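Sequence in, structure out. Go.
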Amino acid sequence: MIGIVLAGGQSRRFGAPKWQARYEDASFEERARNILATTTATQWSVVPAGQSTTPYQLEDDTEWRGMGPIAGIVTVMRHVTSDWYAVCACDTPLVPASVYERLAMERRDQPVVAYADNRIHPLIALYPRAMESQFVAALHRGERAVMPHLTEATIVSFEERDWFKNVNTPNDYEALLGRK
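Output:
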């Protein structure tokens, strides 16, 4: 299984590149890579165009640039071959590795997605390679969201709501830093 860190968003509400924000001595991107390292062979980050600084960072393929999470997932699927991909949004820095360990135990032949705080978290999930063609077709239609492609998925429930909180604004970040 290959790890995909989605770190290519524009961070408009945050006001600075979220993937570079720091929590507990690591950037959000580094935290997500470390979280995925327990269940994946390698970890790849998709970062904004022109900001790749390491060999494990990719930019969205040119044809999909700026088209959201599906573009990031497809970019890694096209560049790194695997049967399965574990996806982690960089703006969920409290998700522990145990979430991905549990998701991995539920793998069969369809996506495996986390559910917490009364909602599905499509960017904390495992996707089989078979989803690539469906995602590419969605991109051709101009679709950016992953959720419509989860009509058939294994949903794994978690009680720990805080693990799945997104850090989208400076206020969210301050609240995160105040948890220490």
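Check: Helices lie at 28-37, 68-79, 97-105, 131-140, 170-177. The radius of gyration is 15 Å.
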